[in-house]
Amino acid sequence: MEAPIQVSFPLPRSLDTRIYLHLTVKSKAVVLFFTTASMDDATSPTPLGSFVYALPDKYNPSQPLATPLCTVEPTLEFTTRLAKLLARKTQRPAYVGNSISFASTGLGGTVEEEIDAFKKVVEVALSQLQPLIGSDQAPSGGVRSE
């Protein structure tokens, strides 16, 4: 699973904006980058957002450790939460880069819009990581269905 996986899907509560996700699973880490772009912004570069490193804590598996490597305040919390979630679910270090923008959503980025986007990114990322999460390589932190 070392080849990058690239997926795009609509940003929830937005008419013409998509989230672009680039996921690479290495033998020792998971690397995820995601951004948004609308039809109008397709030719202009997206500014760099936050970049966070998270790793599972073997003494407290439910609380992974995270360190921001590059901080951009509007994207930092979203990125940190996602990096910790990926580290906890995969039991591997996770590098997450996020330059998502909620400017094109209906209300300009309310808490509800951010939560919907977070849920959608988690849903898509975990669906791509399912072989890794369900394998015997990654110890489960909870109940696993067989």
Description:
By secondary structure, the chain is an alpha+beta fold. The protein has a single domain, classed as Ribosomal Protein S5, domain 2 (2-Layer Sandwich), CATH 3.30.230.100. 29% of the residues lie in helices and 29% in strands. The protein has two helices and six strands. It has helices at 73-90, 111-134, and strands spanning 5-10, 17-25, 30-38, 50-55, 65-70, 94-99. It has a six-stranded mixed β-sheet, covered by helices on one side. A hairpin with a 4-residue loop joins strand 2 (17-25) and strand 3. The longest helix has 24 residues, at 111-134. It starts with a strand and ends in a 12-residue tail after the last helix. The model is unreliable at 136-146 (pLDDT under 50). InterPro entries: PAC4.
